[in-house]
């Protein structure tokens, strides 16, 4: 197995610095793209805390430090998202923001493709509306 195959997505992305860029870009797009108004409205006006939580979650989800689990316990993603009505439209708005953020974050094309598929599966799993 090559060294590249042994690296986690977190490492391939570039670790904390690039992950923070991705998270910040994601929330900046959500706040400014009118096509994401529905999911933007689900968030508090001050996104500092949710940015940090999402950074912590993605760190572990991508194979890096398990910060979210250390701070908050198991992510329980569906449970944490149940208070919000999430259908196909909300899923697609979320993906729009994430895919744009990934396009604007330096990463290998193969990693981007892998993450797009993983993010789609996860976002689709969050749906709790028909």
TrEMBL record:
Keyword Mitochondrion on entry: no
Signal peptide: none
Magnesium in keyword set: no
Pfam families: Bac_globin
Keywords from the UniProt entry: Heme, Iron, Metal-binding, Transport
Ranges in a coiled coil: none
Segments traversing the membrane: none
InterPro entries to which the protein is assigned, alphabetical: GlbO/GLB3-like, Globin-like_sf, Globin/Proto, Hemoglobin_trunc
Family: Belongs to the truncated hemoglobin family. Group II subfamily.
Protein name (Swiss-Prot/TrEMBL): Group II truncated hemoglobin
Organism of origin: Jeongeupia naejangsanensis
Phylogenetic placement of the source organism: Bacteria, Pseudomonadati, Pseudomonadota, Betaproteobacteria, Neisseriales
């Amino acid at each position: 197995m090559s060294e590249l195959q042994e690296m986690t997505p977190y490492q391939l992305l570039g670790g904390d610095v690039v992950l923070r860029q991705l998270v910040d870009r994601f929330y900046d797009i959500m706040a400014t793209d009118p096509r994401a108004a529905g999911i933007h409205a689900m968030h508090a006006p001050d996104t500092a805390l949710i940015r940090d939580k999402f950074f912590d979650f993605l760190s572990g989800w991508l194979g890096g430090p398990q910060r979210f689990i250390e701070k908050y316990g198991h992510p329980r993603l569906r449970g944490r998202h149940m208070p919000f009505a999430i259908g196909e439209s909300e899923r697609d708005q979320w993906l729009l923001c994430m895919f744009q953020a990934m396009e604007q974050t330096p990463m290998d094309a193969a990693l981007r493709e892998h993450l797009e598929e993983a993010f789609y599966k996860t976002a689709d799993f969050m749906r709790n509306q028909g």
